[in-house]
Design goal:
single chain; about 300 residues; alpha+beta; 2 domains; seven-stranded antiparallel beta sheet; two-stranded antiparallel sheet; 9 strands; elongated
């Protein structure tokens, strides 16, 4: 019996959803009703030629406008508050599981050369991490440092950008900033405006009037460190683009919210190469080893 009552309630709710019109359909119907009223007044009363013609023309305009709205208007847009809630629970669950495993480190975005993967990976260390290369097997490094290696939460967004927008990631700060503006403001429309500031090894990004800040607020209320352990797709997207663009490890240092202005500020730290190691020097050594040739303008007699 309980099952039947529940089913009937669901059926009634579905019927009500079909009957309720959105604001565009309501406006179109009102215009069509006004058109009928105006034409009826013109035909049923003797108002004179000019007044009658004015009523008929007005009714025709209302009818055409109503039909135009009905044909070309879409449904109601999705509430941004609900969209913001979508990744929130997954973020909280990840942080709880990671904490149970003894993993409390913030998110590090690793360029492909450090993991030999085809894409940027996210690494949450057990303790500290200096940006060294990781031998990854599944979701865990084979050697120290210990931690958890996963795909960033923005991975599907990156794939969509590569497929539909032919994404090409630049390698300098100015072009990366322009790319962030283009993706976040224009393509995905995640925020009204984005500002980025590069200061040495620190990158500060602010999403002004962030549309999905309610989801951030839920995560922050549950556990403030969650935002830096498992960042949402928007923050993850920024970290991933920067890490691949400059080919260095990028750490999400902290994230802060401003409820009054609906701004979200994210601070990333760029890790230096460990122990004075430079990837360009690493490539040069292998070029000499395999080809036996020195790069141009290097070697005896070419020092400056």
């Amino acid at each position: 019996m309980k099952g039947n009552v529940g089913s009937g309630h669901l059926r009634r709710v579905n019927i009500m959803k079909q009957i309720i019109l959105n604001k565009y359909s309501t406006a179109a119907i009102l215009l069509l009703i006004a058109a009928v009223v105006l034409v009826a007044i013109a035909l049923s009363t003797d108002l004179g030629e000019f007044v009658t013609a004015a009523f008929v023309i007005s009714g025709t305009v209302c009818a055409m406008t109503g039909i135009f709205i009905l044909v070309f208007s879409g449904g109601e847009p999705i509430d941004p508050r609900l969209v913001g809630f979508l990744p929130a629970q997954a973020c909280i669950n990840f942080c709880r599981i990671a904490s149970d495993l003894g993993i409390t480190g913030k998110a590090y975005f690793l360029p492909p050369r450090l993991t030999e993967e085809a894409r940027v990976m996210q690494f949450n260390p057990v303790s500290t991490y200096n940006g060294s290369k990781l031998a990854v097997k599944g979701s865990f490094p084979e050697k120290q440092p210990s931690g958890l290696v996963t795909l960033p939460s923005c991975n599907l967004l990156i794939q969509d950008l590569r497929k539909r927008n032919s994404l090409e990631i630049p390698h300098n700060e100015e072009n990366l900033t322009h790319l962030l503006h283009e993706i976040i403001e224009e393509i995905f429309e995640l925020a009204q405006r984005v500002s980025a500031s590069w200061n040495g090894s620190t990158v500060t990004i602010t999403f002004h009037r962030y549309r999905f800040i309610e989801g951030c607020q839920v995560v922050a209320q549950e556990s403030p460190p969650c935002c830096s352990m498992y960042p949402c797709p928007t923050c993850s997207l920024c970290g991933t683009l920067i890490a691949e663009g400059i080919d260095k490890v990028v750490n999400l240092d902290r994230c802060s919210l401003s409820s009054s202005s609906q701004d979200v500020t994210v601070i990333f730290s760029i890790l230096p190469e460990p122990d004075g190691f430079h990837y360009s020097s690493y490539e040069t050594v292998f070029d000499i080893f395999f080809t036996g040739e020195l790069p141009k303008d290097e070697g005896p007699g070419n020092s400056h």
